[in-house]
Design brief:
- β14 and β15 form a beta hairpin.
- The protein has an eight-stranded antiparallel sheet with strand order 1-2-8-9-12-13-14-15, with helices on one face. It has a three-stranded antiparallel sheet with strand order 3-7-6.
- The protein has 313 residues and is an alpha+beta fold.
- The chain contains nine helices and 16 strands.
Amino acid sequence: MNTPSFSGVHRFSAEFMTTPFEVLFSGIDSKYAREASEAIFEEIGHLEKLLNRHDPTSEISRINSLEPGEEMRIGWEIFSCLDISFRLSRQTAGAFDINTPSLLKYGRNPFSRMWKGRRREAVPPVELIRKADGFSAVRPDRGSPPPDLDLGGIGKGFALDSLRPILADWEIPDALIHGGTSTALAMGRPDPEQAGWPVGVGGGGTGLGVPKRVHLRNRALSGSGLEVKGAHITDPRTGRSACRHTAAWVSHPSAAESDALSTAFIVMSDREIDELCRKRPEIWALTIGSGGTYRLYNPDALKENTMSLEETK
């Protein structure tokens, strides 16, 4: 994913979650842009402390340490992130699962077992409880592997979604924010001549007509692939390395959803992706196969969601 330069656009960067985050603002002066970027980075730093499973004091690390039947209070950020994660795990039949480290260790993925031709309802590793005075997480007594939650496949996208209120407070309608170039959130456009923020897609696809750039507006885009790190993505349902696609790109109004689904689509079959996209027309997706072949899902979402696509000649 690449982000071209524009005149009048202010860029700021900082490292969080072991990856560089970059903020691009358009239509405001440089001093105001810098102050807004500081507020953006402060919020990302706050979320990093909550989501970091390697920090023993973080909320996610404390959830991973729960004993069977034990309950703990959690903030709305972790509640929201886990709620989205568990919902997407159900919708992808386990292709996206934040409890993959535990599944691989104990070899018990509820989605991998069949019962009378229908998939069993998976028991999440923790139960989320919404109370009048806040939120809680409870580890079930039985029925699921112990929690070893890893939010690496959704955390960056969730962080980007959490920045929307800050952009609104600062009255900034035109911005592009990305985390490690793998997930980008585009609001407005860089200038009136552009349909949206141009963001590169396509991975290593070189076949005729493979899309190379999406003009993104008021949506998020995420990409996952094997080109840089090799077969580093594991299918939670089988424990084997992903090999169905070399790259997957997903656009959705939510950066958290696009982030998670791009990971899931790497391991899902064409049929599985097609079925999910038919149920959810707001999703736009592109997968790259071996030999540079590609496939688009919900192409009409480009027009309906203020996106446009550039293809190779």
